[in-house]
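Lecture notes, part 5. Sequence design as translation. It can be helpful to think of inverse folding as translation between two languages: the language of shapes and the language of residues. The source text, in structure tokens, appears below.
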């Protein structure tokens, strides 16, 4: 991990950009973080739209996490932002857009081509980032994962024992194999669902929630479309991580 920029935000949060190999990312730490008082960490997941586009929402989430005494970190997803283009993924996205524009059902082949290669590449990168982040003296455990892509969050919850709780956003298409993996998830979960999400099948989201093997799992559903998540929904997420990361 190599830090490339550093600045102190007006609320005292330290923002650092980094690269891990060829993967860019951000780390935000509260003013209270120090080698003598390391803080828990939340990995901030996001859709594959590019870090520069997602930055305003990510930094807002990181500042909320810092106010609770947590560090927040994120990395650029494969094929997004300034990372090399990924022709197969671009083709899968084009196929999805064409299918939805035609009003046709999105079949398993399109979903698998769109999501599974991303999960297979992104999850090892998230784990490598976690290795590097937890080697910093001011960052400790436990670790949470928050956000999307939900299939990435499911896979991480299965394979990464350092993640002890996850807040997931049911806002993306989910391959059938991820439903099977969801049965192996046992950590506490807090799932947000937008009831009228135009890009997400509601019944599929409910079926995925039902599939999770966690003894503690909570579903919070709000009216509105994909980008209409109410501000107060974040309060529930904050309380969830406060319970499990402190």
């Amino acid at each position: 991990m190599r830090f490339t920029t550093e600045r102190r935000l007006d609320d005292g949060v330290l923002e650092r950009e980094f690269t891990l190999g060829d993967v860019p990312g951000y780390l935000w730490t509260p003013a209270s973080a120090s080698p003598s008082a390391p803080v828990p960490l939340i990995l901030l997941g996001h859709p594959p739209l590019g870090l520069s586009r997602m930055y305003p929402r990510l930094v807002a989430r990181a500042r909320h996490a810092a106010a609770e005494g947590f560090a927040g970190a994120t990395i650029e997803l494969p094929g997004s932002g300034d990372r090399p283009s990924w022709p197969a993924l671009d083709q899968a996205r084009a196929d999805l857009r064409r299918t939805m524009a035609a009003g046709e059902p999105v079949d398993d082949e399109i979903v698998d081509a769109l999501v599974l290669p991303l999960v297979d590449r992104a999850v090892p990168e998230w784990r490598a980032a976690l290795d590097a982040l937890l080697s910093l003296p001011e960052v400790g455990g436990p670790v949470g994962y928050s956000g999307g892509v939900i299939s990435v969050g499911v896979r991480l919850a299965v394979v990464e024992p350092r993640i002890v709780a996850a807040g997931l956003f049911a806002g993306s298409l989910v391959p059938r194999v991820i439903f099977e993996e969801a049965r192996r998830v046992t950590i506490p979960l807090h799932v947000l669902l937008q009831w009228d999400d135009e890009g997400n099948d509601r019944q599929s989201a409910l079926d995925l929630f039902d599939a999770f093997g966690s003894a503690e799992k909570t579903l919070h559903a709000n009216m509105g479309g994909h980008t209409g998540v109410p501000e107060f929904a974040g309060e529930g997420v904050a309380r969830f991580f406060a319970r499990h990361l402190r």
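The translated text above is only one of many valid answers, since several sequences can fold into similar shapes. Residues 108-134 form the longest helix (27 residues).
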